[in-house]
């Protein structure tokens, strides 16, 4: 039996399967499925480490297959492949838990690298729990680990809610460790401990001359986290005007350091944590 990672490729085109097999067979054990229904059946007896899923197929689309996988609690990383890529379908795929989204035609190296990165990020949850010092085997803790495993490999923004001292930052680190960004930095910001006068310079950084004592440029936490994960701990404590500014930053994926004239690109996975009910805070106008 091969010890190579098992890949299930779901695509209705014979040519696509031949290309994938030729590209991946030296490093992976690749199993084909020619329809969404066939793919869903094979998931149970192949137990793949990762699924390559075509977006457009007759009868059952890739998004429909992905939705069915999540409904059946199949927490297998999925990479969507499509020649019909657009922003809306990409957003839908990520919301349904896709680990990545690659448009055809793609470079051979790009697909192989995506596979290796995602598979390397998969860790045994028990081992990760021990490494991070997260103790407890209650049904509630196990449910949290199931959610970490389900959404860790995606780029979806995550909100962790819980009382102070319940390990929100540790679970944020777990999300980072099993994500495709695990080789990047994990950068936490304690919003409750950040003086309002320092919020902008600490988060966005500043350019030389931005204020009286700015004798040199300094990168902010956003730049530190680029390519990795940013944790906004106790985000409800962040002043409203900075909440609005950060919302725009994450929508546009660009920001301007304090005193800067040019915007910088941003590529981070956002995890937030709070010990308060942010829905109620929104109703009260404080979030």
UniProtKB/TrEMBL annotation:
Gene Ontology MF annotations: ATP binding
Q: Which residues carry this modification: 4-aspartylphosphate?
A: 54
* Ranges in coiled-coil conformation: none
Q: What sequence ranges are listed for the domain Response regulatory?
A: 6-119
Q: Which InterPro entries match?
A: AAA+_ATPase, CheY-like_superfamily, P-loop_NTPase, Sig_transdc_resp-reg_receiver, Sigma_54_int, Sigma_54_int_dom_ATP-bd_1, Sigma_54_int_dom_ATP-bd_2
Which GO biological process entries does UniProt record here?
phosphorelay signal transduction system; regulation of DNA-templated transcription
Query: What Gene3D superfamilies does the annotation carry?
Result: 3.40.50.2300, P-loop containing nucleotide triphosphate hydrolases
- Transmembrane stretches in the record are none
Task: Provide the alphabetized UniProt keywords.
Answer: ATP-binding, Nucleotide-binding, Phosphoprotein
Instruction: Tell me the SUPFAM superfamilies matching this sequence.
Output: CheY-like, P-loop containing nucleoside triphosphate hydrolases
Q: Start and end of every Sigma-54 factor interaction domain?
A: 134-287
Q: Supply the name of the protein.
A: Sigma-54-dependent Fis family transcriptional regulator
Lineage runs: Bacteria, Candidatus Aerophobota
